[in-house]
């Protein structure tokens, strides 16, 4: 006679095996299972042997291009958001969750305009973590700043503390979501450097891939601690700076050409 627990385990393995070869599939009403076909799930704990970050070359960031924004939205299920019936479109535009936004900076001395993508800067000393009363905002050992949605109470202190306005509050009910981003009304969220990719052995982010696919190559992702990484070599080769570096947050995202 078969052991019932063994039958359940075999069924679970069969389900996971069938799901492994697809990008998304319906898991339950409103929930889409997001998988990575070539993924190798993390088998070791996260350590501080690496620190993930980015260099964004603003001289390559094209006027009018929003490929990084679109890719981020699709990768993290942000494109599944729907404006509530009867809401004013302008209000929805202000409230819709975004992990990356394109901004323009103007040098008041020269009048020079710079386009750049703004996202969570993954600070070494993140103000959002300091003010969070429930420890929902936290920084992983590898430098990625995240939000634990199970602990978030929606107080939005982190949003007020962030000098980059990089966090979004989910104002409306969410009918569709990805398993990797199970967002819900009343929680705060922000860019997590495609942490699901980090934990499945991939070495890129959706925004960097999309930018490269457009031929711009304005976003370089990598390990700030590895002197041989493409990111470290690029940082050594060109001048770069932190946004609001006067705050001494030691951001993981750097910009050149600003």
How would you describe this protein?
- By secondary structure, this protein is α+β, with helices and mostly antiparallel strands.
- It has a single domain, classed as Alpha-Beta Plaits (2-Layer Sandwich).
- 24% of the residues lie in helices and 19% in strands.
- It is built from 8 helices and 12 strands.
- The chain has helices at 4-19, 67-75, 89-95, 127-131, 157-161, 195-198, 206-213, 230-237; strands spanning 24-28, 31-34, 52-57, 101-106, 113-118, 137-139, 145-147, 168-169, 177-178, 188-189, 219-223, 253-256.
- The strands form 5 sheets. A 3-stranded mixed beta sheet has the order 1-2-9, with no helix packed on it.
- Helix 2 (67-75) packs across helix 7 (206-213).
SSE class? alpha+beta
Q: What is the helical fraction, as a range of percent? A: 10-25%
- Tell me about the largest β-sheet: 3 strands, mixed
Distance between the termini: 70 Å
Per CATH, the class reads: Alpha Beta
Oligomer: single chain
What pattern of helices and strands is seen along the backbone?
HEEEHHEEHEEHEEEHHEHE
* CATH-defined fold name: Alpha-Beta Plaits
CATH architecture: 2-Layer Sandwich
- Rg from C-alpha positions? 20 Å
Overall geometry comes to: globular
């Amino acid at each position: 006679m078969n052991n019932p627990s063994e039958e359940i385990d075999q069924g679970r393995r069969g389900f996971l095996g069938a799901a492994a070869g697809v990008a998304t599939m319906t898991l339950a009403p409103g929930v889409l299972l997001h998988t990575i076909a070539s993924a190798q799930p993390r088998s070791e704990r996260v350590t501080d042997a690496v620190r993930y970050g980015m260099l964004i070359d603003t001289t390559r960031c094209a006027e009018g291009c929003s490929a990084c924004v679109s890719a981020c939205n699709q990768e993290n299920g942000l494109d599944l958001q729907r404006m509530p019936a009867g809401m004013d479109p302008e209000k929805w535009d202000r409230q819709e969750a975004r992990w990356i936004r394109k901004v323009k900076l103007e040098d008041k001395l020269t009048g020079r305009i710079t386009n750049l993508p703004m996202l969570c800067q993954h600070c070494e000393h993140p103000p959002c973590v300091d003010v969070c009363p429930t420890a929902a905002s936290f920084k992983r050992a590898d430098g990625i700043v995240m939000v634990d949605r199970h602990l978030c109470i929606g107080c939005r202190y982190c949003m007020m503390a962030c000098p980059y306005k990089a966090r979004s509050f989910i104002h409306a009910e969410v009918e569709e979501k990805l398993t990797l981003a199970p967002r819900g009304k009343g929680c705060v969220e922000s860019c997590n450097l495609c942490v699901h990719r980090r934990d499945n052995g991939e070495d890129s982010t959706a925004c960097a891939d999309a930018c490269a696919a457009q031929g711009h190559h304005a976003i370089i992702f990598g390990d700030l601690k590895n002197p041989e990484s493409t990111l470290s070599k690029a940082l050594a080769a060109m001048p770069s700076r932190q946004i609001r570096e006067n705050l001494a947050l030691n951001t993981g995202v750097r910009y050149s050409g600003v």
